[in-house]
Amino acid sequence: MLELAILGLLQETPMHGYELRKELATKLGTIRAAISYGTLYPTLKRLKTAGFITESASDPSMIPPMTSKRGRVVYKITADGKERFADLLAQAGPETYDDAGFGVHFAFFSRTDRATRLRILEGRRRRIEERREGLRDVLSRAAGRLDAYTLELQRHGLDACEREVRWLEELITNERSGRAPAASAGSFDIPTAEQSPEPVGGDAPPEKPRPHQDRP
Amino acid sequence: MLELAILGLLQETPMHGYELRKELATKLGTIRAAISYGTLYPTLKRLKTAGFITESASDPSMIPPMTSKRGRVVYKITADGKERFADLLAQAGPETYDDAGFGVHFAFFSRTDRATRLRILEGRRRRIEERREGLRDVLSRAAGRLDAYTLELQRHGLDACEREVRWLEELITNERSGRAPAASAGSFDIPTAEQSPEPVGGDAPPEKPRPHQDRP
DNA sequence: GTAGCGATGTATCGGGCCGATACATCGAGG
DNA sequence: CCTCGATGTATCGGCCCGATACATCGCTAC
After folding, report:
1. Count of A–B CB contacts within 8 Å?
2. CA B142 to C1' C18, whole Å
3. What pTM was computed for the model?
4. Tens of pLDDT along A27-37?
C-alpha cells in the first residue's frame, strides 16, 4: 500500500525521505497520521532494489541549504516505477477495499481512469455494506448479550458505516454522470483551483498543470 | 492491544481459539473485522508463557461433538491474568487513544471505573481534535496544491472527526452526570437488558447475570 | 561567541499483526 | 460413498510501527 503512495508522490517530483514523509502526511492525513521512518526507509530500499526508484546524493546546486556533509538522499522514480505505479493503480485486490488501501487509491483518483474509479468505489461500498450488515445483526440479535458500552460502540460504528455508504453512493452517482467530486457537504468554499471540469483521459495521464521537470 | 481483548473475554468464560475469534469479531466488529489466526495463536502462546492464561485439552464431557482425536485446546485465565487485565484496563498510554486501542478499551468500559473512563474519553477527544485541526489546516492552507479527489477525502475525514468529537462530548457529559451511555442517536429500540442504571463499583466486578461454569 | 534548542535528516531493531497456507475432524446432503 | 462447508489448530513470510541513535542547520538567548 505504501509502495503505491510513494510511487505516486515521486511521480510528481523527486524528493528525499523527510519531505516524502511530510507530503504523505498531508495527502493521506485521513488515513494514517504520519508514516513511520521504520516503514519508510525499508520500503524505499525495497523499491530501489526492485528498480522502481533510484537514489542519488543531492547535488550542491540544490535549493538553498546544506553544504552536503552528510546524506540528503534524493529519490527519483524510474520508467519501471511509473509502469508499476500504473499497474498498482489499475488493479484492485481485496486489500484495495480496506480502510488504508481504499484511502490511498482514492487519493490518486485524479490519475485513475473512470472505469477503475467506479470499480473501486463500488467494491468499497460493498465492503462497507457488509460491515454494516454485520453490525446490524449484532445489534438486533446479540443485543441482550452485550453491555451498554459495547452496544454504544456498535451503534456508533453502524452510524459511521451508513454515512460512508451514502458518501460513496454520491461519489458513484457523480462519476457516472461525469461530474468531478466535491460540492458534497459544502462547508468550505475553497476555489478547487484545477481540474474542476476534469476531462478524464484514458489511464495515467502524464500530469497537466503544475510545471515539473520529469527528466531532462 | 489484542492481549487486553483476549484477557477480557477469557475473564467472562474459558474458550478455545475458534470461539475466541468469533467473540472478538462481534465485540470488536467496529474496530477490526476479524482477528487473524496468525495473530491469535501466537498471542495466546505469549500469554501462556507469561503465565496469564493456561491451556488444557477439552475433557470429553464437553458440549456435544468431538471424540477428541485432535486438539480443541481450552484457554482459561489465571489469577495473574486477571491482575494483568486490571492493570491494562486502568493504565492509559498513547496507544490507548488510537483507533484500535480506544475501541478495545471502550468495549470493556463496563469493567472500568468512572475516573479511568473519563480519562480515556478525554484523551481520545484530544487526539481526534488534533487530527481535526490538522485536516482543517490542510483544507485551508494547502487547498490549491491538492486535486479535487484528495480534497474530497480530507473533507470526508474532517466530517468524521467532527462527528466523533461530538459523540465523545456527549459520552463525557453522560459520564460526569452519572448516566449510562446509549440513548444517543436513537435509531434502535433494543431493550438494553442489563445494567442500564449501572451502579459502577470499583474495578473488575465478578460478572453478574449470565450463568456460566467458571470451573467445575 | 557560544550554548542550547528545535527543525531537518538518515537509519536500524524488535515486535505486533496480517494474509496465505496446510492440515484435521465432523455433520449433512446428494 | 463422497464431497462440501463449518469447526478447529498451527506456521510462515512480510508489512508496518514505535523507540532509538546519530548528525547537521539556523535561530535565539545568555
Report:
1. 150
2. 34
3. 0.82
4. 998 888 889 99
